Amino acid sequence: KNQVEQSPQSLIILEGKNCTLQCNYTVSPFSNLRWYKQDTGRGPVSLTIMTFSENTKSNGRYTATLDADTKQSSLHITASQLSDSASYICVVSDAGNNRKLIWGLGTSLAVNP
Amino acid sequence: KAGVTQTPRYLIKTRGQQVTLSCSPISGHRSVSWYQQTPGQGLQFLFEYFSETQRNKGNFPGRFSGRQFSNSRSEMNVSTLELGDSALYLCASTPGGTDTQYFGPGTRLTVL
User: Fold this and answer.
1) How far apart are CA A90 and CA A93, in angstroms?
2) How far is A105 from A103, CA to CA, in rounded Å?
3) Which one of A83, A96, B1, B3 counts the least CB within 10 Å of its CB?
4) Is residue B83 classed as helix, strand or coil in its secondary structure?
């Protein structure tokens, strides 16, 4: 069964610190892998998208990495800000199933002052 | 361009009732997808519409239905509401040539 697992489930860090969120998947083959940010009470917003051949993609203070061999991705947040407090969701597109999206449960990040 | 809009934002219903949620996609986007989001299950795909036709469907009972109009606006309907239907219902629209989804703010449905 195709799955996307994220860790940790939740994380608390101090403002200004860096953090890394993990995403492991079993989806194969896959079209692309996305990271979304979802603020409380809002819909998810796409942060990065990577295809099979890409290793890293940055969006401001957000950097996503992808290791297609080990089926792992990470999202690194640099110099965290209070506004980074949100849920971060990893989504993998299943190339073998009409590009069906497989969603992770997300990591809930709280950035404290 | 205006983003995806969903109405209403909040809704309270009782068991057994039915509900209709509305979604207006970004102008020019012809694909609309619906998701149910609960804390323990994450985002669960309900269905996708493209040019007024249901293109994909998730594993939800027949109580959940939807439709899309010629202007790409979409509605989803849930009949005979159950307590477990309490969730955030998200709509996302997709432009042609890409599968990047743009989400609306969601409708928070509470079933009492």
Assistant:
1) 10
2) 7
3) B1
4) helix
Structure confidence at residue A52 as a pLDDT band (50, 70, 90): confident
**CA–CA separation, A30 and A32 (whole Å):** 6
Among the partner-chain residues A44, A93, A104, the one whose CB lies closest to the CB of B103 is A44
CA dihedral for A66, A75, A10, B46, sign (positive or negative):
negative
Q: What letters, b where the CB count within 10 A reaches 16 and e where it falls short, cover B17-49?
A: eebebebbbbeebebbbbbbbeeeebbebbbbb
Residue ranges in chain B whose pLDDT is less than 50: none
Dmax (CA) of chain B: 42
| A95 part of contact set with chain B, CB < 8 Å | no
pLDDT score of A96: 76
Structure tokens belonging to residue B99: 């599968």
**Residue A46 contacts B, CB cutoff 8 Å:** yes
Of B41, B42, B106, the CB nearest to A43: B106
Q: What is the pLDDT of residue B47?
A: 93
A70-108 per-position pLDDT tens digit: 999 999 999 999 999 999 999 998 887 777 889 999 999
- Cα(B53)–Cα(B66) distance, integer angstroms: 10
